[in-house]
């Protein structure tokens, strides 16, 4: 498995994932008690969109680049969660150059408070070295470890509260993601009150329907589906859209996510029939 996020950093899927990640953490910040943030596939922590991998794919051009090119007045019309995401991207670029783009561990540590802690996994040696170089924060524990077995070893955390961000390389998953479903069942059984956010690609709608049907049959309650599609579902381009399945979403997160995705959709769509969004309960209380 040789997946490298460097080719995809800053694309529309990253925009969606990171905007909603920040909103999940902002909701957790509303309570005084500390929490743990766990990132199962932390990647390099930061990326440079001016370097060869990103330039070769050009995916960022239809993602963060589009939003960065908006006028100040257009950005003002964005929901608070989207504005906050853009402000953090700009903060890093002011520090490290216009090609800089953060990964999820960097975003999370910006949003977390001093009392909160992070556990970040990355199994690939070369990428872990980059993560170790880019993320230096006393609140973060970095682990070169396979998250499919590592996650179950660190939950439930001592804080009892927290969020697990799961964004695996789907090249190693089969069809309707059985390995992921099994991991979620085991993790939820160990930590039923934890918040679990699972990013997934939308390439084949039938496959996603099977995945969500499997999840609905797990017996896990409070599963929220958030999706954005920049192409129509049946377009053979590789990645038509993406989703975030959130187990135990915090109070009011669904409404905030719906508002953000509705604003992002017309800015990120790649086709006149693209730009659709969904925020719905897969399983309720």
TrEMBL record:
Its EC number is 2.1.1.266. SUPFAM superfamilies: S-adenosyl-L-methionine-dependent methyltransferases. Keywords: Methyltransferase, RNA-binding, rRNA processing, S-adenosyl-L-methionine, Transferase. The active site is at residue 167. The record marks 3 as: Interaction with substrate rRNA. The keyword Isomerase does not apply. The keyword Mitochondrion does not apply. This is Ribosomal RNA large subunit methyltransferase J. It comes from Acinetobacter apis.
């Amino acid at each position: 498995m040789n997946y490298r996020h460097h080719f995809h950093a800053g694309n529309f899927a990253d925009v969606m994932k990171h905007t909603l990640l920040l909103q999940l953490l902002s909701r957790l910040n509303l309570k005084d008690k500390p929490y743990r943030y766990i990132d199962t596939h932390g990647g390099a922590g930061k990326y440079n969109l001016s370097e060869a991998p990103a330039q070769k794919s050009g995916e960022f051009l239809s993602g963060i680049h589009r939003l960065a090119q908006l006028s100040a007045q257009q950005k003002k019309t964005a929901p608070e969660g989207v504005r906050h995401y853009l402000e953090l991207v700009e903060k890093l670029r002011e520090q490290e150059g216009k090609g800089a783009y953060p990964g999820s561990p960097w975003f999370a540590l910006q949003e977390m408070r001093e009392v909160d802690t992070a556990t970040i996994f990355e199994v690939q040696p070369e990428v872990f070295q980059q993560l170790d170089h880019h993320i230096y924060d006393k609140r973060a524990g970095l682990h070169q470890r396979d998250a499919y077995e590592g996650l179950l070893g660190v939950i439930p955390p001592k804080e009892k509260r927290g969020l697990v961000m799961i964004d695996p390389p789907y090249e190693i998953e089969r069809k309707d993601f059985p390995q992921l479903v099994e991991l979620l069942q085991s993790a939820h059984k160990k930590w039923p009150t934890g918040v679990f956010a699972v990013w997934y690609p939308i390439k084949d709608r039938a496959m996603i329907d099977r995945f969500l049907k499997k999840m609905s049959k797990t017996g896990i309650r409070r599963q929220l589906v958030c999706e954005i599609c920049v192409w129509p579902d049946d377009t053979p381009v590789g990645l038509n859209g993406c989703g975030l399945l959130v187990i135990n979403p915090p109070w009011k997160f669904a409404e905030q996510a719906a508002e953000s995705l509705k604003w992002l959709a017309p800015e990120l769509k790649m086709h006149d029939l693209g730009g659709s969004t969904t925020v719905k309960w897969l399983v309720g209380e």
